[in-house]
Amino acid sequence: MRSQSLKSFISDLLLGLGFVFIISPAILYWFIHGNYDRYIWIISGPYPFSHFGGGPFQLFVSAGLLIIGIGLIGISRILKRRS
After folding, report:
1. Is the whole-model pTM more than 0.70?
2. Between 83 and 74, whose confidence is greater?
């Protein structure tokens, strides 16, 4: 009984994190490009932030976040199916 509830909790946690990772590229894009002054402040920062001004780096980060989110949702579905 206890193991079942722990699997269910972990599965639900992974599902929630997966959805957060899937919507995070849109939130990140809004955060970076929502305000011109904030955009300039972000891209004038140190390494990872200075590259957010370029499209390829933003695409790489967004694709990575989407892949992680899809992976977490997939793992969650597999755990739910096994229990």
Report:
1. yes
2. 74
Q: In this structure, how many other beta carbons lie within 10 angstroms of the beta carbon of residue 33? A: 13
Domain boundaries, the chain: 2-82
Q: Are 65 and 21 in contact (CB under 8 A)?
A: yes
CB 38 within 8 A of CB 31: yes
3-state secondary structure 4-68: HHHHHHHHHHHHHHHHHHHHHHHHHHHHHHCCHHHHHHHHCCCHHHHHHHCHHHHHHHHHHHHHH
DSSP letter (8 states) at residue 74: H
Q: What average pLDDT is seen over the chain?
A: 92
